[in-house]
Amino acid sequence: MKISVFRIALFAFVAIFFSVHISYAFLANPVSKVVRETIEYTAKKFGIELSKDAGKVFAEKAAQFIAKHGDDGARLLRHAGPEIMELSVKHGDDIVRMCASHSDNAISFLIKNADDALPLWRQFGKKGTEVMIKHPGLGEHAIKEFGSEGITLANRLSSESLNKALVLSSKAASQAEKRTLFDTIMRRGDDVIEFLWKHKWKIGAGATVYTLLKDFEGLPVDETAKSSGRQNLLQWIMSRAINKVLDEYPWIILVFIGFIIMWLYPLLKWIWNLRNYFSSNKKAYTGESGKAAPEVIIRRELL
């Protein structure tokens, strides 16, 4: 009986021993292999000699970094090298989370612009940094100008249109004017941006963003315009048409004036000649004595 217990205990010990070693072989070794391959790949990519003291320090820090952040750490290390570890010391784990939430193509950009990107990510999440990636140099300004709504605006516009919108916003005289500009752009998109951009020179010549928006939108929004009804509508249509012609087709005015002169000149000349004709006939008929002149009498007899 004692031998059987001993054999059972021995068998259990051997089983546990082999289980531990098998687990280590299938679990620990692959992990260490990934770490080793990541370190070797990163060192080769960024020109780090692992045989030197600096290389050994890098390898040690890289192993700790991967152990802490797992697959995300290994992925970021392969793309950014030692810089991601330096930034994690400066900014904390948020820099790792931010970069890990984006695609491989965005990692280099985010690391290069970490000081600007990280505050956006902390405040607005991935949406904030995506705007920055989509519109380099403009996305963060859109958010600064319009807040969280700037994200929606930036996602709707191209970089060129967004740049124009920001320039126009900087010319707004008040926050209310900026609000009106934003709302109009969200409703009308590139159409209103192109209209304002074409006429932006007027802003420095006495007009405002708001007055240009009124021209673009249609009917004036003041109470007088609302109460005037059809008369104001007709006046607005006429003024809008005239302004459009003056702005876009000024040569038409010159042609129109030329036609008027060409048409009026012969008419006025004909009227003037007709006046002279009747005036001369009157004098010839009456003469100085008030009687009909002989030549007029002869004409009447001939008729």
What does this entry look like structurally?
It contains 17 helices and no strands. It is an all-alpha fold. Among the domains are: 21-121, no CATH class; 251-303. Helix 5 packs across helix 6 (114-124), helix 10 (159-170) packs antiparallel against helix 11 (175-188) and helix 11 packs parallel to helix 13.
What's the gist of this structure?
This protein has 303 residues and is mostly helical.
The radius of gyration over CA amounts to: 43 Å
Instruction: Give the CA-based shape.
Output: rod-shaped
Strand content: under 5%
Helices and strands, in N-to-C order?
HHHHHHHHHHHHHHHHH
Q: Which structural class is indicated by helix and strand composition?
A: mainly alpha
Number of H- or I-type helical stretches: 17
Helix content: over 70%
Write down how many β-strands occur, each being a DSSP E stretch of 2 or more residues: 0
List low-pLDDT spans: 17-31, 219-233, 295-303
Quote the average pLDDT.
76
Q: Could you describe the largest sheet, including whether it forms a barrel?
A: none
Alpha-carbon distance between the two ends: 167 Å
What are its keywords?
single chain; 303 residues; 0% strand; rod-shaped; disordered C terminus
Give the SSE layout:
Layout: H1 2-45, H2 53-80, H3 82-91, H4 94-100, H5 104-112, H6 114-124, H7 126-134, H8 139-146, H9 149-156, H10 159-170, H11 175-188, H12 190-198, H13 209-217, H14 223-228, H15 230-248, H16 250-286, H17 294-302
